[in-house]
Design goal:
CATH topology of the largest domain: Serine Threonine Protein Phosphatase 5, Tetratricopeptide repeat
Oligomer: single chain
Strand content: under 5%
CATH architecture of the largest domain: Alpha Horseshoe
Largest sheet: none
Order of helices and strands: HHHHHHHHHHH
Radius of gyration: 22 Å
Helix content: over 70%
Distance between the termini: 85 Å
Length: 262
């Protein structure tokens, strides 16, 4: 009797597991199909952004998101576009959603190597597209934000290196790409949310310690919160990574330290 009960339990568990596997595979297929439907709108958004047609870019990225609510790069590019047009609250919302998608994916137990590779290939294709766009913008020259473009390109390339190593498991700190955390930190800062900005910048360097801009941005947050030792330490860290810190920032930190000691 006990044996029969045990066998019945094993069969029930096996059936439940099989149903779970099937459901997860069907969900994966649905996501891939939605992504394919969303790609034309996403690509149109990239073209509009390149031509500085920002309202049209926002509309296209939003259309891509409506077609595929898991399209993290569409949320990222929507957030970047909102940053350019100084719609900081909207940028925060888009970039937070992008971060949530990466965190959710990192906590999901994927079924097998084939599915892991499928997701990595999809992400690599999207990153390669953004890499090509950034390289073209940098080569064209004449952009006032050329340093930001170069910094983003470096972070995109680092993320590609992480994903191209098929046997490498990303750590929890690397779950959210550095370029997402850096952009989100800036959106928080522009929105006056300094504690959230500090956490996002710290997450940036945790994911990619080479991002000198994040250290410099942390220095600004530390300065604004009267932590001058931390600010100067962050400045040194930024310069160690080869980032050119604005002399005005160094002077302002010294000025505020002196004023605070009077």
């Amino acid at each position: 009797m006990v044996v029969h009960h045990l066998v019945r339990c094993i069969v029930i568990v096996a059936l439940a597991n099989g149903a779970g596997v099937m459901a997860q595979r069907q969900q994966s297929l649905a996501i891939n199909a939605a992504r394919e439907r969303a790609r034309p709108a996403y690509d149109a958004g990239l073209r509009h952004l390149q031509q500085e047609e920002f309202d049209a870019a926002v509309k296209s990225f939003q259309e891509a998101i409506e077609l595929d609510g898991t399209f993290d790069m569409a949320y990222y590019m929507l957030g970047r576009t909102h940053m350019v047009t100084k719609r900081y609250a909207a940028a925060v919302m888009a970039l937070e959603r992008c971060r949530e998608l990466h965190l959710a994916e990192s906590s999901t137990q994927l079924l097998n190597k084939q599915e892991i590779q499928s997701i990595r290939r999809r992400r690599l294709n999207e990153l390669s597209e953004r890499e090509t766009e950034l390289q073209a913008a940098i080569s064209a020259g004449g952009r006032r934000d050329i340093d930001r473009l170069r910094a983003e390109l470096s972070m995109i390339q680092e993320r590609k290196r992480q994903l191209e190593d098929a046997d490498r498991q990303l750590t929890s700190e690397q779950a959210v790409p550095s370029y997402v955390s850096l952009a989100l930190g800036s959106a928080y800062f522009r929105s006056g949310k300094l504690p959230e900005a500090e956490k996002a910048y710290a997450a940036t360097v945790a994911a990619d310690p080479k991002v000198g801009e994040a250290y410099s941005n942390l220095a600004v947050v530390y300065m604004e919160t009267a932590r001058y030792d931390d600010a100067e330490r962050a400045i040194r860290d930024a310069e160690k990574k080869g980032f050119k810190v604005a002399p005005a920032l160094k002077d302002e930190i010294k000025k505020r330290r002196k004023a605070g000691s009077l």
